[in-house]
């Protein structure tokens, strides 16, 4: 404080542009007095003049004389030199380029554009115009353009250079060196390096510059130059100074240098005397290598008409086609879709596709080969061939039952209520939470909410609603909300959790763990980690979930809960479960968690036990860190009047202010902007700021301290103080030329067309690709697309459009699409690349390298690495880019192509690109692949060269296995009548059947379902099935045999038999199995005679009746009465199960005088006086009086049946089911 008072006594400070002695300082500068009574200018508005009479500091900072710095309580900056009232720098060094200058004692470094001495380098300064001395008239200066000859000149400060035609062009620096390519130039003292395209001397290299056009001298008429285009033939020519080169199609293209060497790839060229190196994509000679050049389009010779070239859509059939460079792929319905790649691999899900040479991985949703994996692509719609009508395709929804269905390509999954929902992928795995699903072959990981297999994991998918089958009425599902008490409930599939007030909230997961903060919850089996806000177990951590509101039970009135807000004082409070925290003004705000830690910035807060880290904006403890939370407004306590808080904006000056909790920072123009943090550090770029206690890192665009780095923040506009008029700031756009400008704080950069664009940084480095830019002091790395220096790399920035200067008319720029041939072109700034079909695609980079896969491309100067899918050079690797479609040149038409169906016989055919295969009935079906292998099951097929593996349902060869494909229906040949085929459904009983090529399997209820393969093995869970010869593995959910395992299949619904009629006299209508005219057994059993020739029932369908008249065996087994076993041979191994007893014909079993169950069921009590029927014989009734288990099992906690004996066919239906209510007699 003493220093400040002393400084004010010693120094006279006058703000404004005029000093007391009538000398002038610049706008927003400060006059500082020096001992002789004269003044110098401090470059800060209201700056602090230092006691050495040479330096000054920004407003609000003190001069530290011993350290040569400016400081305040928050940060330290280098002090600034004062300037003369009549010149920019006292005793400055004028640089040799006549444009820039350096401080006294520094040396101008023209190559680096810096001022250097032993202490280091600083950016050089640009000279400013002089101004007239008051009362003096400045004589008009003559135009000082640099004349090149009597008719044309270059702007002052530039250099005339000859062109290859003997005319003149302008190098945009004085006394420049004109390069021998007649196109570029270098600074004085540098040497042109044609190979590297740089300007070199002993101090290093800088990029060379391109010459610009001259302008006519006033009053002189520039003689017209004779047309000097280089004719390639009678119709097209190349610009003078370029070379005609043949294209692969036999047309012409232009190499943009004279007497060039045309490369053998028909796309690139090299300078005269160089040799094309196709492998390295360079031009080589004994002196070294330079990047090769891409040819450019020719232009028509005046008055000549260029012949039109034909185009090439890819026809899928006679009616639809895909765009050129794409691939036709079959859909599940037998229609067509388009893969946006040439010669693509069509995936077996009929929805996605992969690049040529890759293999579809349905489980991971990727395209794989030995080099790695890439995401698969979704097919796109075809477009109709002109003049053709596309036939309407029939719907093929997947029916879940008789009333609802899922869209084709999806899977029906049960909900927790026993209804249906749809998983949006085919043959999906339905997860045990009844809400999500996973791809085929993956396993649901409920804790991590992922789908896992040995190869890794992918996120699980949420099921979607079914839709009603047309003409069916969907029965209304009964409400199944989870009641929390008598008045409120949570939605089904969620969990009731207590709140801190003793009320209820809902966790959106079933059987969830309610966390101790009364706000969040975790999946079953996880533990709440309050510090990290995660759910943890041995497998890892997942984010916790926030509870949701309950809803009232119908007809109940929810009692009003007493207000339990947290009072902060007598007038304001925070919601229950939050914490009152003071603001910077001494008022109150609310942290949205209980018992929170209020941070020192008065804006944020942290969970209990955490410490606020202001620099990193996190909440830290020894276990780690979590993001901090922002406080929320309080609300008034009922009946209290909240006193109006005084305005607490932070005033920057008398006219503008920043919002409370922010910091005023100077702009480059001396105005004000707002940093959205309190007591922030204002960065030296005048655009960004950092948290208190950190340091601005301009190179990395971060805020750094000893604990690490965080991204810097951008300042925001101020707002006017009420009643004050903000003076209009003078426009401070950065003019690029007389017509366009960039916003203040940005940099003008040339485009490839010679126009202007804006880099969103001040004093930025304009990159050589003419599209991007880098921060000052960084170097553009075109290969890695980064900005590099010794401290590291940051991403480069894309330039933005300029805006017109007021009152100026911007000349219209000519269209600059890059033509690939006469019919298609790529957008400006991209590169034409050949496709595998010989057509064109667009790489989204200029002068890019086209990769050999015809699909991807790389930046100029890098090499395509097909194995790693990267672009490599000596500096490292970057990901390659995918080419994009071309667009037609206006007025060009692409011809249509024809297709052709594959005839199977005289009446039916398959679509072009498919294969005719015989069915089991001797008819025809279509394999959706060309020249396919027809499998022996008459239902599936494999790609050419593969072998059908019926057991694994795959197509195998030495390279591996892929899933087999299902054949599709043929279509009639036009004008032919297809003979009707007889129905060949597989009957399950007298009323229902399965589709041909499938197998009837029993359900747990004794009904029927269909396994979608022939002669299948029905699994013991009554839900799944396996291929013939495989064994169901219930634990692994697979089908196993000595050759290996494949995923099991889920059964599908049956459909009514077309020939079904009600049973006649002597038969009931319940589906019983008739033994003779007067006896029957229940459905799903088999009639067997006992030793007395009386009828009894075996509890299996199509069972084997043993000769002893007492036992029976399941289908596929034979009776071995001596050993008491049923025997079956599988893969030369013998499997045995116990014999099963046959039972008397159906009679009701009396539970008491009023209730009875069927003789295939077991009576179990549901209370002291009521009964229910367990749907298995000799069942164990559980003690909860709600469930039962099969014979040989005991009831255990958690809804499970534990096996206690060896396997017996009395307990073959292993399940845990709800009991059925008995019928009152």
Automatic annotation (TrEMBL):
GO CC terms of this entry: extracellular region
Keywords: Disulfide bond, Secreted, Signal
Domain Granulins: residue ranges: 50-63, 95-108, 179-192, 347-360, 431-444, 515-528, 599-612, 683-696, 767-780, 851-864, 935-948, 1019-1032, 1106-1119, 1182-1195
PROSITE patterns linked: GRANULINS
Signal sequence region: 1-16
InterPro entries: Granulin, Granulin_fam, Granulin_sf
Pfam hit, one: Granulin
Taxonomic superkingdom: Eukaryota
Subcellular location: Secreted
Family recorded in the similarity comment: Belongs to the granulin family.
Protein name (Swiss-Prot/TrEMBL): Granulins domain-containing protein
Organism (species): Electrophorus voltai
């Amino acid at each position: 404080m003493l220093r400040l008072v002393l400084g004010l006594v010693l120094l006279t400070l006058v703000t404004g542009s005029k000093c007391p002695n009538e000398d002038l300082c610049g706008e927003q500068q400060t006059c500082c007095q020096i001992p002789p009574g004269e003044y110098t200018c401090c470059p800060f508005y209201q700056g602090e003049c230092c006691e050495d009479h040479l330096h000054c500091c920004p407003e609000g900072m003190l001069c530290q004389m011993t350290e040569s710095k400016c400081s305040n309580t928050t940060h330290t900056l280098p002090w600034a030199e004062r300037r003369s009232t009549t010149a920019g720098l006292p005793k400055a060094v004028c640089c040799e380029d006549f444009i820039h200058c350096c401080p006294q004692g520094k040396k101008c470094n023209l190559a680096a554009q810096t001022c250097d001495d032993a202490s280091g380098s600083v950016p050089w300064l640009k000279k400013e115009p002089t101004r007239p001395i008051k009362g003096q008239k400045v004589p008009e200066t003559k135009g000082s353009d640099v004349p090149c000859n009597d008719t044309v000149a270059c702007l002052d400060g530039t250099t005339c250079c000859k062109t290859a035609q003997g005319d003149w062009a302008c190098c945009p620096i004085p006394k420049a060196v004109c390069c021998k390519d007649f196109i570029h130039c270098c600074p004085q003292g540098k040497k042109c390096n044609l190979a590297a395209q740089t300007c070199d001397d002993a101090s290093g290299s800088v990029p060379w510059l391109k010459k610009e056009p001259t302008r006519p001298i006033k009053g002189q008429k520039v003689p017209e130059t004779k047309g000097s285009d280089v004719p390639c033939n009678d119709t097209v020519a190349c610009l003078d100074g370029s070379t005609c080169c043949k294209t692969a199609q036999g047309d012409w293209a232009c190499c943009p240098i004279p007497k060039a060497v045309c490369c053998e790839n028909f796309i690139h060229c090299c300078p005269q005397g160089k040799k094309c190196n196709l492998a390295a994509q360079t031009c080589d000679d004994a002196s070294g290598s330079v990047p090769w050049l891409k040819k450019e389009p020719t232009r028509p010779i005046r008055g000549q008409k260029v012949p039109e070239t034909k185009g090439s859509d890819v026809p899928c059939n006679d009616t639809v086609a895909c765009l050129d460079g794409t691939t036709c792929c079959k859909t599940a319905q037998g229609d067509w879709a388009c893969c946006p790649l040439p010669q693509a691999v069509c995936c077996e899900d009929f929805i996605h596709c992969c690049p040529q040479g890759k293999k579809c991985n349905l489980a991971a949703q990727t395209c794989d080969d030995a080099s790695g994996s890439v995401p698969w692509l979704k097919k796109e719609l075809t477009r109709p061939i002109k003049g053709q009508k596309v036939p309407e395709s029939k719907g093929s929804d997947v029916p879940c039952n008789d009333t609802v269905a899922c869209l084709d390509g999806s899977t029906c999954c049960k909900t927790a209520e026993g209804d249906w929902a749809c998983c949006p992928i085919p043959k999906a795995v339905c997860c045990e939470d009844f809400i999500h699903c996973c791809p085929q072959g993956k396993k649901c990981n409920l804790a991590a909410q992922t789908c896992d297999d040995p190869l890794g994991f992918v996120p699980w998918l949420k099921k979607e609603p079914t839709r009603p089958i047309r003409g069916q009425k969907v029965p209304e599902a009964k409400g199944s909300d989870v009641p929390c008490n008598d008045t409120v409930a949570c939605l089904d599939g969620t969990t009731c959790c207590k709140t801190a007030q003793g009320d209820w909230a809902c966790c959106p997961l079933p059987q969830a763990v309610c966390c101790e903060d009364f706000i969040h919850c975790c999946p079953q089996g996880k533990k709440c980690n309050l510090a990290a806000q995660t759910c943890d177990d041995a497998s890892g951590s997942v984010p916790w979930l926030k509870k949701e509101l309950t809803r009232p039970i119908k007809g109940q009135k929810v009692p009003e809960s007493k207000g339990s807000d947290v009072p902060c004082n007598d007038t304001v409070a925070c919601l229950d479960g939050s914490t009152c925290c003071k603001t910077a003004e001494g008022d109150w705000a609310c942290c949205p968690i209980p018992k929170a830690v209020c941070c020192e910035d008065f804006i944020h807060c942290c969970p209990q036990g955490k410490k606020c880290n202001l620099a990193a904006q996190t909440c830290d403890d020894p276990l780690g860190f979590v993001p901090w939370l922002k406080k929320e407004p309080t609300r008034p306590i009922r009946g209290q009047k909240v006193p109006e808080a005084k305005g607490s904006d932070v005033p920057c000056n008398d006219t503008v202010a920043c919002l409370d909790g922010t910091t005023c920072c100077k702009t480059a123009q001396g105005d004000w902007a707002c940093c959205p943090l309190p007591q922030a550090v204002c960065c030296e770029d005048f655009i960004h700021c950092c948290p208190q206690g950190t340091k601005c890192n301009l190179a990395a665009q971060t805020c750094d301290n000893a604990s690490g780095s965080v991204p810097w923040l951008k300042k925001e506009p101020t707002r006017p103080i009420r009643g004050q008029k903000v003076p209009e700031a003078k426009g401070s756009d950065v003019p690029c030329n007389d017509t366009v400008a960039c916003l203040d704080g940005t940099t003008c950069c040339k485009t490839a067309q010679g126009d202007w664009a804006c880099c969103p940084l001040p004093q930025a480095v304009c990159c050589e690709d003419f599209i991007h830019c880098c921060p000052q002091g960084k170097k553009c790395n075109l290969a890695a697309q980064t900005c590099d220096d010794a401290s590291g790399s940051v991403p480069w920035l894309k330039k933005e459009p300029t805006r017109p200067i007021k009152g100026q008319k911007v000349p219209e720029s000519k269209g600059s699409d890059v033509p690939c041939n006469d019919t298609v072109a790529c957008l400006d700034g991209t590169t034409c690349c050949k496709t595998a079909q010989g057509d064109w695609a667009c790489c989204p980079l200029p002068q890019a390298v086209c990769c050999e896969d015809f699909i991807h491309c790389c930046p100029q100067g890098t090499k395509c690495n097909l194995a790693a899918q990267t672009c490599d050079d000596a500096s490292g690797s970057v990901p390659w880019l995918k080419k994009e479609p071309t667009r037609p040149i206006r007025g060009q038409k692409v011809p249509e192509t024809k297709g052709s169906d594959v005839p199977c016989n005289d009446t039916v055919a398959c679509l072009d690109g498919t294969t005719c295969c015989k069915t089991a009935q001797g008819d025809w079906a279509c394999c959706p692949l060309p020249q396919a292998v027809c499998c022996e099951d008459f239902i599936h097929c494999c790609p050419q060269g593969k072998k059908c593996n019926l057991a694994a349902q795959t197509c195998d060869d030495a390279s591996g296995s892929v899933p087999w494909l299902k054949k599709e229906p043929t279509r009639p040949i036009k004008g032919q009548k297809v003979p009707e085929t007889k129905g060949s459904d597989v009957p399950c009983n007298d009323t229902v059947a399965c589709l041909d090529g499938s197998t009837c399997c029993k359900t747990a209820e004794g009904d029927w379902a269909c396994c979608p393969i022939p002669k299948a093995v029905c699994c013991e869970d009554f839900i799944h099935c396996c291929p013939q010869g495989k064994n169901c593995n219930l634990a692994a959910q697979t089908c196993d045999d000595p050759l290996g395992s494949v995923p099991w299949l889920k059964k599908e619904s049956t459909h009514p038999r077309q020939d079904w009629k009600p049973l006649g006299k002597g038969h009931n209508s319940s589906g019983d199995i008739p033994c003779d005219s007067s006896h029957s057994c229940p459905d799903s059993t088999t009639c067997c005679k006992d030793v007395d020739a009386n009828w009894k029932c075996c509890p299996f369908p199509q069972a084997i009746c043993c000769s002893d008249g007492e036992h029976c065996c399941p289908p596929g087994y034979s009776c071995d009465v001596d050993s008491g076993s049923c025997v079956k041979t599988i893969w030369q191994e013998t499997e045995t199960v116990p014999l099963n007893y046959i039972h008397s014909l159906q009679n009701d079993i009396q539970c008491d005088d009023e209730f009875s169950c069927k003789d295939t069921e077991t009576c179990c009590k549901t209370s002291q006086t009521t009964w229910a029927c367990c749907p298995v014989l000799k069942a164990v009734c559980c003690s909860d009086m709600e469930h039962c288990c099969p014979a040989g099992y005991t009831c255990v906690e958690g809804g499970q049946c534990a096996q206690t004996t060896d396997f017996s066919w009395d307990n073959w239906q292993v399940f845990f089911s709800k009991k059925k209510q008995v019928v009152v007699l």
